[in-house]
Amino acid sequence: MVDRRIKFRHIECFATIHREGSLKRACAVLSLTQPALSKTLKELETLLGATLMQRGRGGVRLTPEGQAFLEGAETSLAALRRGVDGVEALRRGDSQTLRVGAMPSVAAALMPKAVARFRKAMPGVVVELRDGPHGHLVSELRAGRVDLVVGRLGSPASMQALSFTQLYVERIVCTARPGHPLAARRSVPPAALGDWPVVYPPDDAAIRPLIARTLIAQGVPLPADRIETVSGAFGRNHLLHSDALWIISEGVVAQDLAEGRLVRLDMDLDTTAGPVGLMTRPDETPSAAQRLFTAALTEAADRA
């Protein structure tokens, strides 16, 4: 039975500390002093009869009890935010909004087709698209700031307490500008990445562990001369004016490759192929807009 002395402020403080990684940053987000925040966390731990977080020089770390409590805390906050947002929207007379997180390869390739199909079915629904790396978007999904996310399947730890429905399988490619010295080679070994500047996915990108495993298996170290980003706009423009190589999901550059603005190097990255799909909160009953958008995504993926 839930202890009625557990209040919204307890749950909000706990979830914010976890999300920000430290009491100091959580204080700034919540506009609280550190003693007040520490007191609130201590109250929650007392009510639950368990220590939820360990504090150290590197920030805070969840205990097993804290990890168990986190899922319910984030789910509760997300549900409350959706309820408040719904009341405010009705009060203002707003139209319904569907908030969709899209990872870069999906935002460039699949999403335009899916949105077009969805808008024909529900023209009155505002579609709010947010792009970014895997880590950021799944955090937004758990917190209820987006309704669903479409992108690469992440690691088991990053996908905890989320549902994943596969849409298709996508490869990772190494690209360059037309005329690059490597473009004419029939085969480019991954070791060549050490000879050129590389645009490389950052730590919280879902494809980074896949690329890392492939390079390690072939004895290739992490490229030292690299720029880490998930920005498609930066990657394609940087390549056009440099000899850099770009390791990226094929969907991000599919149109550039088809129209000849970039070329795909013949580098063996087949082991990086992985599923792309729809991520949702399993405890939530999807709205009519979410169901229709899922159908639009599936149709767009089937026709790709």
Structural class: alpha/beta
Rg, alpha carbons: 22 Å
CATH architectural group of the largest domain:
3-Layer(aba) Sandwich
How would you state the average pLDDT, rounded? 88
The largest sheet, given as strand count, sense and whether it forms a barrel, is: 5 strands, mixed
Strand content: 15-25%
For the terminal residues, how far apart are their CA atoms?
49 Å
Approximate shape:
globular
Query: Spatial order of the strands in the main sheet?
Result: 4-3-5-12-6
CATH topology of the largest domain: D-Maltodextrin-Binding Protein, domain 2
GO molecular function, one term: DNA-binding transcription factor activity
Keywords: DNA-binding, Transcription, Transcription regulation
Domain HTH lysR-type: 6-63
InterPro entries: HTH-type_LysR_regulators, LysR_HTH_N, LysR_subst-bd, TF_PcaQ, WH-like_DNA-bd_sf, WH_DNA-bd_sf
Describe, in plain words, how this protein is organized in 3D.
- By secondary structure, this protein is an alpha/beta fold.
- It has three domains: 8-73, Arc Repressor Mutant, subunit A; 95-167 and 275-303, Periplasmic binding protein-like II (D-Maltodextrin-Binding Protein, domain 2), CATH 3.40.190; 172-272, D-Maltodextrin-Binding Protein, domain 2, CATH 3.40.190.290.
- It has helices at 8-20, 23-30, 34-48, 64-92, 104-108, 111-121, 134-142, 208-217, 232-240, 250-258, 288-303, and strands at residues 53-56, 59-62, 97-102, 126-131, 148-152, 163-170, 172-176, 198-200, 226-228, 245-249, 263-264, 274-280.
- The chain has a five-stranded mixed beta sheet, with helices on both faces. A five-stranded mixed beta sheet has the order 9-8-10-7-11, covered by helices on one side.
- Helix 1 (8-20) crosses helix 2 (23-30), helix 1 crosses helix 4 (64-92) and helix 6 packs across helix 11 (288-303).
- The longest helix has 29 residues, at 64-92.
